[in-house]
Design a protein that fits this description.
With 153 residues, the chain is mostly helical. 70% of the residues lie in helices and 0% in strands.
Length: 153
C-alpha cells in the first residue's frame, strides 16, 4: 500500500445543488426555453402556446410577457407584440428587451415618433444596460433603427 503524500492538495468534489422539480424559477426557465425551442423549429404557434400557458400561472412575469412580445413580433403580429411589451414594461419599466420589441413593433406599425422615443430610452441608462446584459447583439440593431427612423422623419 502506498502512502499518500502530504504535499498533494486534496480536491474537493463539486456537489451539485439540488433544485426542487417544482421550483417556480426553474419551471419558468423551462417554459421559456421550451417556447423558444419550438419557435426555432418553425413552430411559432407552439412556442406562443407554451408562453400563454405559463402566463396563466405567472401573469406578472415581465420575462414571460417580454418573450411573448418577441415571438409575436417575429410572427408579424405587431399590435399584439406592442401590447405584451407594454404590459412587461408596466412591471419593469426599463426592461431593455421589452423596450426593443416595443420600438420595433411601433416602427412596423408606422408610429415613428413613438418608436424614436422608445429607442432613445435604449440609447443609454438602465434600458441599454438591461438590453446589453440580456441580448448584447441587439444593441447595435436598435441604434441603427433609431438613426434610420430619425433620417426618415
Amino acid at each position: 500500500m502506498r502512502a499518500l503524500s502530504t504535499n498533494t492538495p486534496t480536491k474537493k468534489a463539486h456537489r451539485p445543488v439540488a433544485v426542487p422539480a417544482n421550483d417556480p424559477a426553474m419551471l419558468l426557465a423551462r417554459a421559456r426555453n421550451a417556447a423558444f425551442a419550438e419557435a426555432s423549429k418553425g413552430n411559432l404557434g407552439g412556442g406562443l402556446g407554451l408562453l400563454y400557458d405559463a402566463l396563466k400561472d405567472e401573469p406578472m412575469s415581465h420575462d414571460l410577457l417580454s418573450d411573448m412580445a418577441a415571438l409575436l413580433l417575429a410572427a408579424g403580429k405587431l399590435e399584439h407584440a406592442a401590447g405584451y411589451a407594454e404590459r412587461a414594461l408596466r412591471i419593469q419599466s426599463l426592461h431593455g428587451p421589452s423596450l426593443y420589441t416595443l420600438a420595433f413593433a411601433l416602427s412596423g406599425q408606422g408610429n415613428v415618433d413613438r418608436a424614436i422615443g422608445v429607442l432613445t430610452e435604449l440609447q443609454g441608462g438602465a434600458g441599454r444596460d438591461s438590453l446589453q446584459a440580456e441580448a448584447p447583439e441587439l444593441v447595435p440593431v436598435a441604434m441603427i433603427e433609431l438613426e434610420r427612423l430619425r433620417r426618415a422623419r
